[in-house]
């Protein structure tokens, strides 16, 4: 949306670009998610660490019976052992942790797009409320003008007293609607400021032209853009994660060797000898068959979910695109054809009423039709921008820029 000429220069205003920039800098949800990525960085570091060596000690042939009742036949052994991982187990562990981070990064990109889209929606809501507020101002002006005209006709005995009362009531209702519109406008300001965790807005209005409808790329171009969206990219990240998990499960079938070396003290002869140890788990029953099968199933599931998500996104895109074209046509018809005719009709009706050729009801009906038409234009233009935001969110294009 472009800058609006109706915004007074002395008022603090905010643009859509500024609103999105503030959101990206200070949105609490995005700030909190950054710590999730930092936590995963810690897991990557941890997964790359090698097993610590183990220090063990044993004392044998003590506190027994006979010759072993004392300590003269004791044997003290101190051992230092180390697990040696085989089959690239450490590298596979690191790869899984990194793929998990890729998945979290994809989720972060999705959260970023969602946050930007919500800020854009709130900005459009504020711009729409500004137009609605101007419309209620116009309704008050028309009601005031009508009440004055009715007062003149009643004073000249050309209209009954009941018309003056009806005009007064209509003016009060218009003023109430205007006050309510002011409340809605203030609420929209606070909602937009909350996007970047501000306690209250430091702006008065959105610098926007609601009726400037940006053009959208062709449907085929948008359809092609769906393939690269973060919503689908996360399934690619998940597939890579599952592949890494499969590799880790296969590598885990060989759990590694544990070798050790130490010294043994023979108390009886006061001799010292070296001791060596070797341990290797035998993969007789548990060869990680279950973990491998689970990872393979999740890998296939990620591919199926991606296809289902793509089909759903294509369906949504078609609906949004048709809605966008329909709203564009509606705004054009109202503003270029219907509104000029209705404004002309109201001017003729007002002129005729002052000269007694039209009744009060005909004047009020013409005013009502004009206000309704303007309201339809506001709603259609706002819906165009809302739909455009959904398309940009769905395709991942435009919002980030």
What keyword list fits this structure?
401 residues; alpha+beta; Outer membrane efflux proteins (OEP); 4-stranded antiparallel β-sheet; two-stranded parallel ribbon
How do the helices and strands line up, and which of them pair or pack?
Layout: E1 13-14, H1 16-26, H2 28-47, E2 54-60, E3 75-84, H3 89-155, H4 161-193, E4 205-206, H5 219-225, H6 230-251, E5 257-266, E6 271-279, H7 289-354, H8 360-395
Helix pairs in contact: 1-3, 2-3, 3-4, 3-6, 3-8, 6-7, 7-8
Q: How would you describe what is shown here?
A:
- This protein is 65% helix and 10% strand.
- α3 (89-155) packs antiparallel against α6 (230-251), α3 runs antiparallel to α8 and α7 packs antiparallel against α8 (360-395).
- It has one domain: Outer membrane efflux proteins (OEP) (Up-down Bundle), CATH 1.20.1600.
- A hairpin with a 4-residue loop joins β5 and β6.
- The protein has 401 residues and is an alpha+beta fold.
Shape: elongated
Largest sheet, order of strands side by side? 2-3-5-6
CATH topology: Outer membrane efflux proteins (OEP)
- What is the helix/strand order? EHHEEHHEHHEEHH
C-alpha Rg, in Å?
A: 38 Å
What's the CATH H-level homologous superfamily? Answer: Outer membrane efflux proteins (OEP)
Note poorly predicted spans. 3-9
Top CATH class: Mainly Alpha
User: Which CATH-level-2 architecture?
Assistant: Up-down Bundle
Helix tally?
8
Q: What is the terminal separation in angstroms?
A: 14 Å
The helix content is: 55-70%
Mean pLDDT: 88
Give the tally of structural domains: 1
Kindly estimate the percentage of residues that lie in beta strands according to DSSP: 5-15%
Largest sheet: 4 strands, antiparallel
Q: Can you count the beta strands?
A: 6
Structural class: alpha+beta
């Amino acid at each position: 949306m472009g800058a609006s000429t109706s915004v007074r220069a002395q008022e603090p205003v905010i643009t859509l670009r500024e609103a999105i920039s503030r959101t990206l800098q200070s949105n609490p949800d995005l700030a909190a998610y950054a710590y999730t990525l930092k936590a995963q960085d810690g897991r990557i570091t941890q997964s790359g660490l090698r097993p610590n060596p183990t220090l063990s000690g044993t004392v044998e042939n003590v506190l027994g019976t006979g010759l072993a009742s004392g300590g003269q036949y004791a044997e003290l052994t101190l051992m230092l052992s180390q697990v040696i991982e085989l089959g690239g187990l450490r590298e596979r562990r690191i790869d899984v942790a990194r793929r998990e981070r890729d998945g979290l990064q994809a989720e972060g990109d999705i959260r970023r797009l969602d946050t930007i889209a919500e800020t854009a929606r709130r900005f459009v809501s504020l711009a729409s409320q500004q137009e609605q507020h101007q419309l209620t101002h116009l309704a008050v002006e028309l009601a005031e003008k009508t009440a004055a005209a009715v007062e003149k006709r009643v004073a000249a005995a050309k209209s009954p007293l009941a018309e003056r009362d009806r005009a007064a009531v209509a003016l009060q209702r218009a003023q109430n609607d205007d006050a309510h519109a002011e409340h809605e406008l203030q609420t929209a300001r606070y909602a937009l400021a909350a996007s970047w965790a501000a306690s209250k807005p430091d702006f008065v209005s959105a610098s926007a032209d609601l009726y400037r409808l940006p053009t959208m790329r062709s449907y085929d171009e948008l359809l092609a853009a769906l393939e690269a969206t973060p919503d689908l990219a996360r399934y690619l990240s998940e597939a890579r994660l599952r592949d890494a998990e499969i590799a880790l499960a296969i590598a885990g079938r060989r759990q590694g060797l544990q070798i050790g070396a130490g010294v043994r003290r023979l108390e009886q002869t006061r001799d010292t000898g070296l001791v060596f140890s070797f341990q290797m788990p035998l993969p007789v029953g548990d060869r990680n068959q279950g973990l491998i099968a689970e990872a393979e199933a999740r890998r296939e599931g990620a591919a199926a979910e991606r296809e289902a998500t793509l089909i759903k996104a294509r369906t949504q895109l078609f609906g949004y695109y048709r809605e966008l074209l329909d709203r564009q046509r509606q705004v054009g018809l109202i503003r270029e054809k219907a509104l000029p005719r209705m404004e002309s009709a109201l001017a003729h009706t007002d002129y005729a009423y002052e000269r007694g050729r039209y009744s009060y009801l005909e004047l009020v009906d013409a005013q009502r039709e004009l206000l309704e038409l303007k309201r339809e234009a506001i709603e259609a233009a706002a819906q165009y921008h809302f739909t455009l935001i959904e398309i940009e969110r769905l395709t991942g294009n435009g919002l980030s820029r």
